DNA sequence: TATGAATGAGCATTCATTCAT
DNA sequence: GATGAATGAATGCTCATTCAT
């Protein structure tokens, strides 16, 4: 039978919940929190409207769970970025990539800022931003020590935002220089600073 | 329903336009871009609804002009912050204040992030973010040189966001240390680096 | 131009508010409080949906105002019923008509019960039911004295409800007998009981 | 969203049907016909949503059966009220109690009016209102004769409604007077009038 | 048999915008 | 010029009902 129609009958559909969450993140990245509606999400997830309201008590609830999923996925991704880092140079290179990341990084970067802004007004979301901050600092601290990690974290956040908004990309060299300067002269060993 | 507040007849009201823009900024700071509507703004400005649509062609237009006003005011404010700075120590102190600014700074910081996020999706707003970035870097560069200014700008942005979201304020000492480290050892003279 | 179309442009339309209230009463009489929605009312009043929500802050508000209008109109109508009553017999006859009133009375009777039931759950509506009770007792008391008026009022209410629900109409004779018995032997004079 | 309350597995549950009906009556008494939904009823009966739709073909059906149960229970209760009545005075006293019944009577009174109003629009329910009217008149008639019973029935209905709505309870004396006057001078014997 | 998931229709309400006055 | 009324589109959400398991 025609299986490519507007919507196939999908009475049995586990992980629909998760699909909705991912669709919500997509929509939020594209249209911002303001443009995120039950209908847009439903369309993106290829799911009837009622399905979205069935699985989530409210739009705010859906948003919160989507952000939670984002932090969870992002933490894993972030961790993996540094998995194979063995030298100081590799570490720096990964960070530069992070800032200059192409469209692939775009989505997650935008979502990150969207989450930050949302958390500014919704204290319930603070646990997520705090978890995310703590997590990323912890990963960085394995290479730099805690103090430098916090500084680096802030610097990266600022540079990523600027990179997203810049008319033309800043040269990688400038980014690298900023990172190296922030890391300071002492950090030569790949893991931890004594 | 027709909600008629107690509103005095205001026959001659030359800076109503400006009052509306300021009200819009207030509302945006409080409720975010999403919660900013003609009605909320009109109520905040204590002006009839029709007045808002009369003075501005569309909500997007009003928003853009409000952001423009924000950048203009903010640039002046930022400039003034450094007016009396004469020593390296004073410079650092002003920057630390910037990050730990109390509720007074809160509004403008939130609006800054709101503008950044809006600009991410609306290219028309990029001229504003670019002007603002250029402007603040220029001011900083008077004390640090251009390269350091860019780094410092990014660091401050990241730290301000973290400060806004932190459960409990980070110690001023950590902030100061981050700034001092970013300024580097060479920057001793208050004005410009050779 | 075609003026009989689905909806004529009606930019200038005073007493639209009142028309909406009357439409609301019509709908409530026909479909009950449960079936009364913005949309049904708008359709009945031949007015766009937005017009209903523009003029009334909420559906509850609209309902309350409609009931208020009902009580107001009904009081006047009730009063007028007894305008020309001069003899005891005429008085009795008007009351019997009240109970056996045809479809013309049907609407108002149903609305009356609808209001009573609504007031049971919404204390704000109690002022209306109390005004209405007080008013009708006052009119009746002009012919019977206060004590009898209250009894009569209750009796009429019960009989009207039974008449509305009866499979086949009770004989006017029985109604008259009940009324006469309630009025008691003393009430001969058309106005007031000594 | 899937709201899973703490619900014990209830494998063998023979009178679940009845429990649902009683829950429906509770909900109807509290929130009115309008607020009576499958979900509210299920929650009140502490039963899964599917269980309500499983046992009853439609909401209208459930409502009708609930009303039927109400009439059945109410008839028995009403009958029992007069079981021990032996004198005229006792009879009057029971009737006065009926009107001034406290919160215990509140539920059934409200449900009675709810049923009457529903029957006004749904002819299927008329068999219930007629049965109920016939039944209560029959009980009363055992003490008064048929004519007086009908009058009394109407009077009681009106007085009960007024009592429910009155800001402050009318004095029992007035109620008693109304009843005594309606019973008339002849009714002295406890059972039947020849 | 019992039930959680699913869905389409409908509802109250908000809102940007237009327009007659 | 200024504004209250008006309106059509959209939004968050609820709900009766169906159905696969």
Concise description?
The structure is a homotetramer of 194-residue chains. Chain A has 194 residues and is an all-alpha fold.
Give the number of domains of chain A.
Answer: 2
Give the CATH H-level superfamily of the largest domain in chain A. Answer: Tetracycline Repressor, domain 2
Q: What is the residue-mean pLDDT of chain A, rounded to a whole number?
A: 89
Q: Largest interface, per-chain counts?
A: A-B, 38 and 39 residues
> What Rg of chain A do the Cα atoms give?
20 Å
Which quaternary structure do these chains form? homotetramer
- Name of the level-1 CATH class of the largest domain in chain A: Mainly Alpha
Q: What would the CATH topology of the largest domain in chain A be?
A: Tetracycline Repressor, domain 2
Shape of chain A: elongated
Unreliable parts of chain A = 1-9, 187-194
DNA-binding region (chains A, B, C, D): 37-56
InterPro entries (chains A, B, C, D): Homeodomain-like_sf (IPR009057), HTH-type_TetR-like_transc_reg (IPR050109), HTH_TetR (IPR001647), Tet_transcr_reg_TetR-rel_C_sf (IPR036271), TetR_C_31 (IPR041583)
Domain HTH tetR-type (chains A, B, C, D): 14-74
GO molecular function (chains A, B, C, D): DNA-binding transcription factor activity; transcription cis-regulatory region binding
What does this structure look like?
The structure is a homotetramer of 194-residue chains. With 194 residues, the first copy, chain A, is an all-alpha fold. Chain A folds into 2 domains: 12-56, Homeodomain-like (Arc Repressor Mutant, subunit A), CATH 1.10.10.60; 60-183, Tetracycline Repressor, domain 2 (Orthogonal Bundle), CATH 1.10.357. Chain A is built from 9 helices and no strands. The longest helix of chain A is centred in the middle third of the chain and has 23 residues, at 59-81. The termini of chain A are far apart. Chain A binds chain B through residues 31-34, 110, 113-114, 116-117, 119-121, 126, 129-130, 133, 147, 150-151, 153-159, 161-162, 164-167, 174, 177-178, 181-182, 184, and chain B through 31-34, 110, 113-114, 116-121, 126, 129-130, 133, 147, 150-151, 153-159, 161-162, 164-167, 174, 177-178, 181-182, 184. Chain A binds a DNA duplex (21 and 21 nucleotides) through residues 10-13, 16, 37-39, 48-51, 53-55, 58-59.
């Amino acid at each position: 039978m025609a299986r490519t129609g507007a919507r196939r009958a999908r009475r049995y559909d586990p992980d629909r919940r998760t699909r909705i969450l991912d669709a919500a993140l997509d929509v939020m990245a594209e249209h911002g929190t303001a443009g995120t509606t039950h209908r847009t999400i439903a369309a993106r997830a290829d799911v009837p409207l009622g399905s979205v309201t069935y699985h989530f008590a409210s739009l705010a609830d859906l948003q919160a769970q989507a952000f939670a999923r984002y932090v969870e996925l992002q933490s894993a991704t972030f961790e993996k970025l540094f998995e194979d880092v063995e030298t100081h140079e590799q570490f720096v290179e990964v960070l530069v990539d992070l800032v200059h990341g192409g469209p692939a990084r775009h989505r997650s970067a935008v979502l990150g800022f969207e989450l930050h802004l949302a958390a500014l007004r919704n204290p319930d979301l603070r646990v997520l931003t705090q978890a995310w901050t703590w997590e990323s600092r912890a990963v960085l601290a394995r290479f730099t020590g805690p103090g430098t990690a916090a500084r680096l974290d802030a610097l990266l956040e600022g540079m990523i935002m600027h990179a997203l908004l810049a008319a033309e990309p800043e040269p990688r060299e400038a980014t690298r220089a900023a990172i190296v300067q922030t890391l300071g002269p002492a950090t030569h060993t790949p893991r931890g600073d004594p």
